[in-house]
Design a protein that fits this description.
The complex is a heterodimer.
Chain A (H helix, E strand, L loop, with lengths): L2 H12 L15 H4 L4 H15 L25 H10 L1 E2 L12 H20 L7 H30 L2 H7 L10 H17 L10 H4 L1 H10 L4 H14 L18 E5 L11 H13 L5 E6 L5 H12 L6 E4 H10 L4 H4 L3 E2 L5 E2 L7 E8 H12 L6 H21 L4 E2 L4 H5 L4 H4 L12 E6 L1 H17 L5 H9 L6 H9 L8 H18 L10 E3 L6 H7 L29 H8 L13 E6 L6 H16 L4 E7 L1 H9 L8 E3 L4 E3 L5 H12 L3
Helix pairs in contact in A: 1-11, 3-6, 5-6, 6-7, 8-11, 11-12, 12-13, 13-26, 16-17, 16-20, 17-23, 20-22, 20-23, 27-28
Chain B lengths: L2 E11 L7 E6 L20 E4 L9 H5 L11 H5 L5 E4 L1 E4 H9 L2 H6 L3 E6 L6 H11 L4 E6 L5 H8 L4 E5 L5 H8 L4 H13 L3 E7 L7 H12 L6 E5 L30 H4 L5 E3 L1
Parallel strand pairs in B: 2-6, 6-7, 7-8, 8-9, 9-10, 10-11
Antiparallel strand pairs in B: 1-2, 1-5, 3-4
Classes of the chains: A alpha/beta, B alpha/beta.
């Protein structure tokens, strides 16, 4: 880090700047609140928020920018909210979130270009019509970002910050003339999205859409690699400044994912100098944002994995890897055009989405595998003569549950989001706010607790059907009693085969369950013309679902958590990571490709020299070569985490991976902290 | 057929030979190195071990014990511990059982240029089992051993004929100091080292760096000299593990280092580099 960037970094680390998040926008104006059309109201809210913002720059900033208004007032009054929520399906606060913008298009066109196109479209519709209002709202949203830029331009001028002054006299109105201007424009867009009330604002394929600007500067000789690195570092740091204001389940759950690598529309690898520069920038910073994701395939050179592993070694819980060889064909199978599939990114955590053209809701709900298993056991175990008969009942129940989950998604209400619409690919041309859908409108379900479910069924199969060592009645009674007084039964349950030991006896059950999940959703349509996708993620459901679930036949006590994402259960000692990878690449992952990584924890001593790091990199490559779809690895030291619980003051900047994002350990609720510590106990 | 006693199998071990490996820890060791960090591996027999952390001192284990004057590892106490703190250390495997366990991930081991490593304890303590294991694995996966070299030469040579790679410890070169710190005279070790060097089997030398014991200039220079005259591929230095004492309570013993364990070990690679020896710090 050079001296200038170092100053910005220190300012972030000290956290004192947070006192500058000091304005509360108590209420929107009457004019805004009384606007009937919600798209127009939303655009006016953004305008009022921008008006309330005070531009703050520090002498060392070349990009800078941070929020001063700390809240985004709600769009609907309570009465309206009640009405909409009563009559509609409402997801994640009814805000547009967790999608990926068409940054490439925004940078190429500039907001003046956007505005010209919006106004040309407006002429096609009569004033006051729905389309006209939606376009008008987008027009206002463009004004808002230009106003924000102007505030910063004026402040740059006042402070004599000539770099920023010059940049802001071009962007975001016009397309950037340099990599630096592109970064400034991206910062403004990111800032505006958050101010607009959007959540989980992903950064998409940064090394693809930024590359032309970077490459042309390098070719012209106007940018050195060192300058580019410093600017990229600054941009990355800036993404962290308002992290305490970003909404999420836990702090850090803000969705600022950034994707590197992958292929272009023709299928050619895109990994470039900017991809490497981004890894270097992230490596030097040790910050939770942006969360780095690398798209890899059988063709990816080992060196990319090695560079990625250097970042893993930092202990931030990223990069996360996704395998193009599995994901792209899977998306095509789900109905995405090949060209779009090749352009996939990850959403906030790990769900696969398409930038610009998709308003997929990949986390709309989650299947609770263990609940289905437990319910089926209670109702049917006594009447099933064979394990196969029981499995048929379980599958029928999965089918029923999926249909129910799908049914619940009908008639969704989403608040219009004109600014987000402006930076999607087709909203202007279609005069339609993104809230009403895009080219792709698919919904995805997570699949929480897969290993708990597979382990439970394996235990039933072994104890009740194969060995006859525990009767069905006894098992049900033990579960009802949460194993109290049934220590012997629980010991047998714990000793039954577990997913993660490369044992087909139980892994085969997981294959059947995941296939069944995919089959159950196949052919279902949502009411936006989209389909449903089955996944292997858990999001926070590994906590939410497990809290209320009784004891399970794998030996899990009532209320104990499931494993996060696509991982072995917490209550077993495993043979090791090679067996885990074998087990978890057996399911037909292309069929459950909504997203959701195998998560592996490594003790940080594994990385103590370069040889260890290189071998971890090779392991990641093995996972990909053997058909894994997605992987995240964490390098952690359990003792450090325990110490951090006792002495948080000594570990202010300790970062851990939670489920699909990384956060500061100290800022997590205790149950999330404990889960991370627990999952470390059983991994090598 | 021989059976073997294994006290741990570690998948994805990255510091026990080339590539990604599965390491098998065979129980029993003839040496008593003062810094041993794996005391579970010392005794050849299956033991009952008890983790003191979290013990409620409820007395349940003592109540069922019928062998207070000498544990026979009957395991009665294991079943009664309310916190599952007691377990067997050591599992008896037949050759087919262990072969199956090791080969279940052989595809990955091969893809990653790795294999199986037999370590310990001291793997040569179970030389007959080791020979049978090697025969059973031959041609299916790369086989390495990690050894202190303290074994009858005849047995050592037999094992050498069936393995692909050796990690050979040279610890203390001075004979008297060797006895003091490792419990063994080092002449046999040095003789076997010579045999290893002549065997044509690729090998590296491993040196634990114990503060004031093995990391002295004299000791390291002497090791370097031996290595230079041998066919060794290189030297791997293993700095003292400050957690070495952490597992002694498990076997009911106290850790009693005869050296200053707080002192940082002297990681002197120059002594080896000067002699043109490839050296790595692990």
């Amino acid at each position: 880090m050079d001296e200038r960037v170092q100053k910005i970094y220190q300012r972030l680390q000290k956290r004192e700047y947070r006192s500058l998040h000091n304005k509360e926008l108590a209420e929107l104006s009457e004019a805004c609140k009384s606007t009937q059309d919600l798209a127009l109201r939303s655009a006016k809210r953004l305008t009022e928020l921008v008006q309330a913002e005070r531009a703050i720059l520090f002498p060392e900033d070349r990009i800078g920018m941070m929020r001063t208004v700390k809240n985004v007032p709600q769009l609907l009054c309570d009465k309206e909210k009640e009405k909409y929520h009563a009559n509609h399906f409402v997801f994640d606060g009814a805000q547009v979130c967790n999608i990926s913008s068409d940054y490439e298009g925004a940078l190429r066109e500039g907001f003046d270009g956007k505005r010209a196109r919006i106004r040309a479209e407006m002429k096609k519709y009569s004033e006051g019509s729905t389309q006209y209002n939606q376009l008008k709202a987008m027009d206002l949203a463009v004004d808002a970002i230009l106003l924000l830029a102007e505030k910063y331009r004026a402040e740059a001028e006042r402070m004599g910050n000539t770099h920023l002054l010059e940049a802001l006299s071009n962007v975001p109105a016009h397309s950037p003339r340099s990599y630096y201007e592109a970064l400034v424009m991206m910062r403004l867009i990111n800032f505006t999205l958050w101010l607009n009330g959007n959540k989980h604002n992903t950064l998409g394929r940064f090394d693809v859409y930024m590359y032309p600007y970077f490459q042309s500067d390098i070719a012209r000789g106007t940018l050195t690699r060192a300058d580019a690195l410093a600017l990229t570092q600054e941009f990355f740091i800036d993404l962290n400044f308002d992290a305490d204001l970003y909404p999420g389940v836990q702090q850090g759950d803000n969705g600022q994912s950034l994707v590197l690598g992958g292929v272009d529309p023709d299928g050619c690898e895109v990994w470039n100098e900017l991809s490497e520069l981004c890894l270097d920038a992230s490596l030097s910073l040790n910050l939770i944002d942006p969360k780095i994701n690398i798209r890899v395939s059988g063709k990816t050179p080992y060196e990319v994995y090695y560079r990625g592993t250097l970042l893993t070694k930092q202990g931030l819980g990223f990069p996360q890897y996704s395998n193009d060889d599995v994901v792209i064909p899977a998306l095509v199978d789900l109905g995405y055009e090949l060209r779009d599939a090749r352009n996939y990114v990850v959403a906030a955590c790990w769900e696969f989405i398409i930038p610009g053209v998709a308003y997929d809701i990949p986390n709309v709900d989650a299947l609770n595998y263990p609940q289905v298993v437990l319910d089926t056991l209670k109702d049917e175990l006594l009447s099933c003569e064979t394990f196969e008969a029981l499995m048929r009942r379980v599958k029928a129940e999965i089918g029923k549950t999926c249909a129910e989950l799908a049914g619940r998604t009908k008639n969704i209400f989403v608040e219009p989001s004109p600014f987000q619409s402006v930076i999607m690919t087709d909203c202007i041309a279609q005069a339609k706010d993104i809230a009403y859908g895009a080219k792709y409108n698919n919904y995805g379900f997570h699949g929480a607790g897969l290993s708990t479910a597979a382990d439970s069924l394996a235990a039933v199969r072994k104890l009740v059907y194969d060995d006859g060592s525990v009767s069905a009645e006894q098992l049900l009674a033990a579960l009802d009693a949460d194993f109290k007084g049934y220590d012997d039964v629980r010991a047998k349950c714990l000793a039954a085969p577990k997913m993660g030991n490369n044992d087909d006896y139980v892994d085969g059950i997981a294959v059947e369950l995941t296939d069944c999940f995919a089959d159950s959703l196949s052919g279902l349509k949502n009411d936006r013309g989209g389909i449903f996708r089955a996944g292997t993620g858990s999001a926070m459901y590994y906590i939410w679902y497990s809290e209320h679930l009784g004891a399970t036949p794998d030996g899990r006590h009532a209320g104990d958590p499931f494993s996060a994402n696509y991982s072995p259960s917490l209550n077993v000692k495993f043979d090791g990571v090679l067996s885990v990878i074998h087990s978890f690449t057996k399911p037909h992952l292309g069929r459950v490709c909504n997203g959701g990584p195998l998560t592996l924890e490594f003790h940080d001593t594994l990385f103590r020299n370069d040889e260890g790091t290189r071998k971890v990199a090779r392991l990641v490559q093995l996972f990909v070569e053997n058909g894994g779809h997605q992987l995240q690895l964490n390098a952690i030291n359990r003792d450090t985490l325990l110490d951090a619980q006792k002495h948080p003051e000594d570990h202010k900047n300790l970062i851990v991976r939670v489920w699909g994002w990384s956060g500061y350990f100290n800022e997590l609720d205790l149950e999330y902290q404990n889960h991370i510590i627990k999952r470390l106990e059983f991994m090598s | 057929m021989n059976t073997g006693i294994v006290f741990s199998i570690e998948e994805f071990s990255v510091y026990d030979g080339p590539g990604i490996r599965t390491t098998v820890f065979l129980k029993g060791c003839p040496m008593r190195c003062n810094w041993c960090h794996n005391p579970e591996g010392l005794e050849a027999r299956i033991q009952v071990v008890k983790s003191p952390n979290g013990c409620l001192h409820c007395g349940a284990c003592e109540a069922v014990c019928e062998h207070k004057d000498g544990c026979i590892a009957c395991g009665k106490c294991i079943a009664v511990c309310p916190r599952n703190l007691i377990r067997f250390s050591g599992t008896r495997y037949t050759v087919p059982e262990l072969t199956e366990r090791l080969l279940k991930n052989a595809d990955y081991l091969r893809q990653a240029g790795g294999g199986v490593t037999f370590s310990g304890g001291e793997c040569l303590m179970q030389a007959d089992f080791l020979m049978e294991m090697a025969a059973s694995l031959k041609g299916k996966v790369h086989i390495a051993i990690q050894t202190c070299g303290y074994a009858p030469t005849e047995k050592f040579l037999k094992v050498l004929s069936v393995v692909d790679y050796v990690m050979y410890d040279l610890k203390v070169m001075d004979r008297a100091l060797a006895v003091r710190y490792t419990g063994c005279d080092n002449r046999l070790i040095l003789e076997n080292f010579q045999k290893l060097s002549e065997s044509g089997v690729p090998f590296v030398v491993r040196v634990p760096l114990i503060p004031g014991v093995t990391d002295t200039v004299e000791n390291l220079s002497e090791i370097a000299e031996r290595v230079q005259q041998s066919a060794a591929l290189g030297v791997e230095l293993l700095p003292y593990n400050k957690m070495a004492g952490s597992k002694y309570a498990l076997i009911g013993k106290a850790y009693d280092p005869l050296f200053d364990e707080k002192r940082e070990p002297n990681i002197d690679t120059a002594i080896f580099c000067e002699k043109g020896i490839a050296v790595k710090v692990m």
